[in-house]
């Protein structure tokens, strides 16, 4: 008996060491990739690369942030609302099971399929040209399953005593959701928003057929309804991810590799900064709601 117990302890320690080694290997691999991209980007820096001229990446950087913000404005309310419905209102049955299958299927679709769907619906059927808003709609479709699932899990994770206490003092079901469940679930929902935004920042295939591969703007025009304005969401616009792809595959610019390397580093830093800022915001909201 003692021998079996000792063998179990040894096996547990060996398994723990192996798992730590695997986790450490992948962390080192991730750190190596990150360092490689950052170092290559720093080495490729050139004066004026952040300009809004054709030789700079200012327009592409703005397009990236602008498109992701538009997509979050569209997808977050819909995704959070769908998650609330699935967690609090959907009754077990064939309809709910069908909705879950649809959500799972949508989350597994390749982004190129979403891009082709976006081209058919948002470009071809509407008679429009490539534009940032169509790209944002395509990215929103990619984000919806993630936001819905994360919100549902976050709402379900709220302790039942919170809901029971709210209902006991006379609050309605909707008031309980809005004033109790959502604030408690906010940190987890923010995690979903971060993941959705990260996918939007790095997305290229879905935008290839919706947002377009070029930008033509006039920095002297600030009317958001003018197709030449930087603020117009209905103009073609390539993001950093698309810009990197174009520079690496079809660009004839002599310093295309250097611009692509620097753009990749900027994109990585942008995603990291957004994730860190969202985490800090979520932690602050959590402390505020918990009274710490």
TrEMBL record:
Recorded coiled-coil stretches: none
Q: Where in the cell is it found?
A: Cell membrane
Q: Where are the transmembrane segments?
A: 17-39, 60-86, 98-123, 130-150, 259-282
Q: Give the matching InterPro entries.
A: MetI-like, MetI-like_sf, Phosphate_PstA
Q: What is its main location?
A: membrane
Going by the UniProt record, its keywords in alphabetical order are: Cell membrane, Membrane, Transmembrane, Transmembrane helix, Transport
Pfam families named in the record: BPD_transp_1 (PF00528)
* Membrane association type: Multi-pass membrane protein
Annotated ABC transmembrane type-1 domain ranges read 61-278
Give the protein family. Answer: Belongs to the binding-protein-dependent transport system permease family. CysTW subfamily.
NCBIfam families assigned to the protein according to its UniProt record, in alphabetical order: 3a0107s02c
Annotated protein name in UniProt? Phosphate transport system permease protein PstA
The record's gene field reads pstA
């Amino acid at each position: 008996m003692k021998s079996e117990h000792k063998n179990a302890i040894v096996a547990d320690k060996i398994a723990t060491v192996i798992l730590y080694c695997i986790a450490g290997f992948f962390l080192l691999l991730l750190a190596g990739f990150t360092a490689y991209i950052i170092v290559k980007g720093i080495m490729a820096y050139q004066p004026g690369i952040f300009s809004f001229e054709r030789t700079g990446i200012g327009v592409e950087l703005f397009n990236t942030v602008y498109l992701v913000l538009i997509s979050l404005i569209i997808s977050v309310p819909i995704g959070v609302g769908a998650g609330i419905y699935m967690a609090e209102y959907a009754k077990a049955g064939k309809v709910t099971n069908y909705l879950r299958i649809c959500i799972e299927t949508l989350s597994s679709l390749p982004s190129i399929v979403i891009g082709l769907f976006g081209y058919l619906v948002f470009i071809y059927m509407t008679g429009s040209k490539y534009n940032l808003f169509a790209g944002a709609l395509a990215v929103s479709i990619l984000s919806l399953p993630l936001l819905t699932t994360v919100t549902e899990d976050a709402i379900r994770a709220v302790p039942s005593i919170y809901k029971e206490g709210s209902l006991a003092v006379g609050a309605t079901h909707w008031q309980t959701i809005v004033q109790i469940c959502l604030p408690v679930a906010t940190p987890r929902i923010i995690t979903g928003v971060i993941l959705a935004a990260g996918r939007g920042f790095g997305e290229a295939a879905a935008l290839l057929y919706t947002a377009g591969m070029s930008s033509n703007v006039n920095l002297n025009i600030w009317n958001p309804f003018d197709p030449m304005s930087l603020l117009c969401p209905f103009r073609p616009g390539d993001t950093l991810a698309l810009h990197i792809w174009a520079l690496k595959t079809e660009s004839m610019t002599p310093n295309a590799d250097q611009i692509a390397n620097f753009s990749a580093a900027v994109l990585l830093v942008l995603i990291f900064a957004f994730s860190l800022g969202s985490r800090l915001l979520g932690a602050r909201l959590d402390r505020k709601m918990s009274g710490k």
